[in-house]
Amino acid sequence: MVSTVIAEEQEVGGCRLLLDQIRPAIHAHLDDPVIETFGLTIGFGNEPVLSGVDLPVARHQITAIVGPSGSGKTTFLRSLNRMNDKLRGFRRSGRVELEGQDIYGAGVDPLVVRKRVGMVFQRPNPFPMSIRDNVLAGVKVHKMVPRAALADVAETRLAEVGLWPAVAGRLSDSPYRLSGGQQQLLCLARALAVAPDVLLLDEPTSSLDPVSTEAVEALLLRLAAKVSMVIVTHNLAQARRIADQVAFFCEGRLIEAGPTEAVFESPKRRETGKYLQGQFG
Amino acid sequence: MTSAAASERTLHWAEERTAFSRRLAEKWSLSLTVLALFLLVAPLFWVLGGVTDQAARVWSWHMLTQTTATGGLANAIVGTFVLLAGVLVVAGAIGVGCGVYIAEWAVPRRRLLLRGASEVLSGVPSIVIGYVAYVALVVGLRWGYSLVAAVLALSVLVIPYVAKSTEIAISQVPTSYREGAMALGMGEGHVLGRIVLRSALPGIVTGLTIALAISVGETAPLLYTMSFSNGYPDGHLTHTTMGYLTYVAYIFWDEPSSADQNLAHVAALVLVLLVVALILLGRLLVRLTQRHSEGAGG
């Protein structure tokens, strides 16, 4: 009798107890994933952060990663384009396949991986250079187009994110004169300019006001047709609004993944349901 | 009187007392800082005024066209600029390189070691550096009095400042810039060159400005490595001497002839103006290159 009560309490506090009996994650099979992880396990020093994550990422869809703080969402996201490589004590086992090729395999250049798998961060981080140079930063480094075409690329990319009307007359201005939302759109344009196959977004709207958030979400929905996206978000309503797939992480494990509707409406795991209902966070 | 009212009064009294002592502390610290500011600024104006006054009394335009042989400063001014250019190239390249290495690549233990070494070097008196350069370069390598020895001695003197300011400037570049650049697939070289150094530029320029200002004002290492002559730089790197301003200010002052003493006054003024011009130029450069920075954005 006593033991049941303790179990209930700990369950409400998180998913630690339930994980004591480790069960395989639940996720739907995807036919043609753009990225797929196999037994991805990551730690920093002696601290384990992710354990055995198997997750396929759907092509040309938006996959939302949700879960409580410290569940390893961002670490997972950053491992998809090798942004963790240089962090102190980084340890990894398992594979991350991009179009069937292990990005951690021998002879794979992390720079090429990062060009194909771009990233947008929690806080807008424009470079300290003009708006035009920001959009073109990656394009110039990779010498993707001749010099004469650079102006066109800048316009196309800024138009793509809906920023062109606002900045057309002041491409030489500092990006820090833009609003937070516009800065984030600029960062999206910069990431898109190197034509990535996959875009990773780490809570891209958490520092933005509702109107800017709406603009970014609308943009992501438009972009999904040509770029596959993985977005980490604390905002469950956002995940529900824009994601095609949802993956729920807890305590460094993938608990459940599947089509958004299915996961939100009829979660197969009790932890998922509790988290989605806001019983712990 | 209830005890509640009594305690309220005590509280009230205590509040007044703390408010009074707070105001007193504010006034006291304000006067101390104003005094400190005065002690900083007063000597500056004293020096500027004194130097300008002395120089104005003996000023004549031909001092800018004649050499020190004929009562002018032209060769000394040119010589000082040549030294500055040399220091800018040598100390700039080595100092910035050291700073980048310490900030970007050195493992923590080596970083500590290098920082320590750099600090020790910056503490070595300039006369000692001059003497070492004399023994090693002028005599040891048989360069004779030479421009190279002078530039190297001055560079050794100021490299620690350049390295330190570069290191600090780089370490203050936000991680988000680097990560943004990495996420575009930029290699380390591109991240460093296009993003990190660009945002660290104000700090680096400030370090270089200080380095040049120190070089402009040094005499001791030059006495050992360059000696002095009434001539212009002759294009040779070794076995050559030339004029420079600090020598005029320092040595001519003691000369018996009043014409030489006058030159010393004017040389002092030109030196001060040169330092001011260097600092303004540095500021201007920073403003021009940083018009896109976060601070400038507003």
Helical region count of chain B?
A: 11
**What would you report as the Rg of chain A, rounded to the nearest angstrom?**
20 Å
Overall geometric form of chain B: globular
> Runs of chain B with pLDDT <50, length 5+?
none
Unreliable sequence segments of chain A: 1-13
Mean pLDDT of chain A: 89
Q: What percentage of amino acids of chain A are in beta strands? A: 15-25%
Largest sheet of chain A: 7 strands, mixed
Largest sheet of chain B: none
Provide the residue-averaged pLDDT of chain B: 90
- According to CATH, the homologous superfamily of chain B is MetI-like
What multimeric state do the chains show? heterodimer
- Counted by DSSP, the helix tally of chain A is 12
Helix content of chain A: 25-40%
Number of domains of chain B: 1
> What is the rounded distance between the termini of chain B?
58 Å
Given helix and strand content, the structural type of chain B is mainly alpha
CATH secondary-structure class of chain B? Mainly Alpha
Walk me through this protein's architecture.
The complex is a heterodimer of chains A (281) and B (298). Chain A has 281 residues and is α/β, with parallel strands linked by helices. Chain A has one domain (2-124, 196-276): 3-Layer(aba) Sandwich (Rossmann fold). Chain A is 37% helix and 23% strand. In chain A, the strands form two sheets. In chain A, strands 1-11-10-4-9-8-7 form a seven-stranded mixed beta sheet, sandwiched between helices. The model of chain A is unreliable at 1-13 (pLDDT under 50). Chain B is an all-alpha fold. In chain B, 78% of the residues lie in helices and 0% in strands. Chain B has one domain: Orthogonal Bundle (MetI-like fold), CATH 1.10.3720.10. The A-B interface holds A 81, 83, 111-116, 118-121, 123, 125-130, 133, 137-138, 141-142, 173-177, 187, 190-191, 194 and B 174, 176-177, 179-187, 190, 194-195, 198-199, 290-294, 296-298.
